[in-house]
Amino acid sequence: MLTSPRQCRCCGATFAQLLSLSCDRPDICAEDMEVEDNSAVLATRGDILTEDFCRLGDLRFVRAVLAIPLNGTRGEEFILGTWASLSRDDFDAYLDLFEMRETDKLDDRPAWLANAIPPDMPMPAGCMLEMRPGGQYPELKVSEQNHPLYPLQKDGAALEELLELLYAYGHDLPSLVYDA
To answer: Which PROSITE patterns would you find in this protein's record (predicted)?
Structure first.
């Protein structure tokens, strides 16, 4: 499961390595909002959704990752592709350095997880957004100790916990464990 390609029977997605989930937009963003090229965030006023940025009214979002270490592996992580809500000033500072792939020049920033993970989680989690080098997406570190992701991120997840999370998103467990 960690190294060979797998195809999910429920959605048909092929995973070349360890599975990951990715949210295509912040939860608050309308499903019918068209995804535009990243350059549109600079050229367009008002609400916009791009591959890496979202602006809705006074709210600002950037694409991020949330890594969950897997117990019993050699440093393998399950990656959640998420969105982080930032202040307008932090969003603008990030945007200024994004094209130059120098966002790591920013200090860590407070942020909110903008996707319900797990899917039945009613409240967003307070996080720190840690900048990473080389144009990599920043990493969200959950700081709210009462959020279900906090212990998973801090202590790591067992395979069973990971499979439960995937099941909550509708993925067919046998297709993840057995050859398709």
So the answer is: PROKAR_LIPOPROTEIN (PS51257)
Neighbouring residues of 137: CB distance < 8 A, sequence distance ≥ 6: 52, 63, 64, 65, 81
Binned average pLDDT, 10 residues per bin, the chain of 180 residues: 54 55 90 94 90 96 94 86 95 90 90 88 87 90 92 89 76 54
User: What DSSP string runs through 68-121?
Assistant: EEBTTSSS-EEEEEEEEEE-HHHHHHHHHHHTTT-GGGSPPEEEEE-S-SSTT-
- What is the Cα 82 distance to its own chain's centre? 2
**Confidence (pLDDT) at 180:** 44
Torsion angles phi and psi, residue 43, rounded to 5: -95, -20
Which residues, other chains included, contact 108 with Cβ-Cβ below 8 Å and sequence gap of 6+?
A: 128, 129, 130, 131
Which residues, 6+ apart, have CB-to-CB distance to 49 below 8 Å? 25, 29, 33, 34, 35, 36
Q: What is the pTM of this model?
A: 0.82
Q: Are strands 77-86 and 59-69 parallel, antiparallel or unpaired?
A: antiparallel
Question: Which residue type is seen at 146?
Answer: N
